[in-house]
Amino acid sequence: MNELLQLLKKFFGYTSFRPLQAEVIQRILNKEDSLVLMPTGGGKSICYQLPAIYLPGTAIVISPLIALMKDQVGALIANGIPAVALNSMMQEDERQHVKQFCMQGKVKLLYISPEKLKSEIDWLLPRLDISLIAIDEAHCISHWGHDFRPEYTQLSILKERFPNVPIVALTATADKITRTDIVQQLKLRNPQIFTSSFDRPNLSLTIKRDLSKKDKLATIIHFIYDHKKQCGIIYCMKRNDTVQLVKELATYNIKATAYHAGLPSSQREKAQDDFINDRVDVVCATLAFGMGIDKSNVRWVIHYNMPASIENYYQEIGRAGRDGMKSDTLLFYSLVDQIILRRFAEESGQKEVNMEKLHRMIRYCGADVCRRRVLLSYFGEETDHDCGNCDVCKNPPERFDGSVLVQKALSAIVRAEEHINMKMTINILRGSDRTEVTEKGYDQLKTYGAGKDLSYKEWKEYLYQMIQLGYLEVDYTRGNILKVTPMGSKVLYGDMTAQLALYKKPDDLTIVKRRPFKARPIRPISADSIEETLLDALNQLRKQISEREQIPAYIIFSDDTLDDMVKKKPVTMEEFSEIRGVGESKQDKYGKVFVSLIRFVLKLPKL
Ligand code: ADP
Ligand code: ZN
């Protein structure tokens, strides 16, 4: 293992393994099979890349996403590791060249798409000295998974042809059926299954419910201003919303681009490319976006609408903070979202399953306990402590006896013969003189005006809570009217009390327009801003190199690596080599320029 640790430092610039990495690697060196379940950003790649470097011969990596393949090969080459890709997107002469290169034994890792594997299994592969086989995104093999790929079902041939080569299958999707499917279909021999925690403690979790469109936009602008110079994704349910949002953001000087399945592929590619290369800060996208993206420095994800399931939600927020650094997520949800998603679920052909998934998602949004605990328990993991990094932990709800409020609301609903929706209920409670209230005679009800003391927003909040607590239910089949449940009746007639969470006024949402996030010129140094100045300068340098070499900035150095530079302020080449994420190749290539810049910012003489 010592030797492996040295290789880890030499090629990747890391000094220790993440949980389970060493164990998985040992297993491969023993020529044994394994299945690795780790969340996105958990560090799956090292599990096969390091033994590939260590062992003689070439490692075969099966990967379904061509864009991701390109990214991974690029990252390996940047670290001085000979890696190539073989897929159907390449030109024939390029493919021939790659094959030659492989046969000369010069390649440590060969990334290959499943369809290319099929055509090369009898030709190229038998001519190689294969050290190990890694199957990335292994859940694609299963019909149960969310991303089934027919080409993946032919992978059983690998074990038949290369019975003595260890196979490692890796995925971030972990349910039991998928697991069994992977093991069976790949014909893994006595595989050890490694499962690491699915927790992503670096992601903060915040949920806001039912804001008006205007407030939603204002919240987003504030959020983006608070994340200046950091990039993120806004997921929308509707294509049109992505385009609309981009326009709105532009008026606030925020550089954004839209991405949805209805756009021509050239436009989608451009959007993706602009995002990867930091030419835009924000992508407003439908769910189609993100599959092939390995960008490690996505700093935030916003859900403009509620996702259809917790799996989707977790996968989407998981695109933030792959480098392990602090990242923020924000989800908006509303009754309207719920209604639309219900319809999708009902029409989906898998009604029961999808309705159940949606229910779990709705419950997650409405939960008033630590959100991370709810998420982890959904994935079958138990935790014994609150996370401290979700909105509930940071701002725990204050409870009060809300029995009287519940009684007022429920009584209004009963007196209106359970024919009214949320809006009408609030209007009656607040004694509104709108015609739709008076023409039905609701102004004659005893409860008319009984809740004048609360604002519209407050009532809306409390009615939501009453639904969540099970005192009311929404009849989606009849214009979303509200109905009193048996438990609600108990509160109404004084047989039970109701605890509600106190409504808190949302933050001030007025927006002060700010300047676009242009990198600032290096300013004179004052003691408290030196770190900020240094980070700015390092970011600019990384961007310049990225543009010159035409590789994404995060492949040159991750945000985490820049962060370590700011903390340790290396001013000699030797100190620079100690930085997390600086291996020998990057030290040689970039060490000098970065050290010079750091010395310049610190006002030290040139080396
Ligand atoms: P996954 O494939 O599981 O989503 P990656 O393999 O892309 O995750 O790793 C996520 C991030 O963690 C990458 O930036 C990677 O360089 C970093 N990483 C992996 N292993 C280590 C380690 N042992 N020490 C520090 N950083 C690591
Ligand atoms: Zn929490």
Brief overview:
By secondary structure, this protein is of the alpha/beta class.
3D structure, described in words:
With 607 residues, the protein is α/β, with parallel strands linked by helices. The chain has four domains: 2-195, Rossmann fold; 203-394, Rossmann fold (3-Layer(aba) Sandwich), CATH 3.40.50; 399-501, Arc Repressor Mutant, subunit A; 530-601, DNA polymerase, domain 1, CATH 1.10.150. The protein has 26 helices and 17 strands. Mean pLDDT is 90; it is low at 516-525. Bound molecules: adenosine-5'-diphosphate and zinc ion (ZN). The site of zinc ion (ZN) has 8 residues, from helix 15 and helix 16. Adenosine-5'-diphosphate is lined by residues 14, 17-18, 21, 38, 40-46, 296, 322-324, 558.
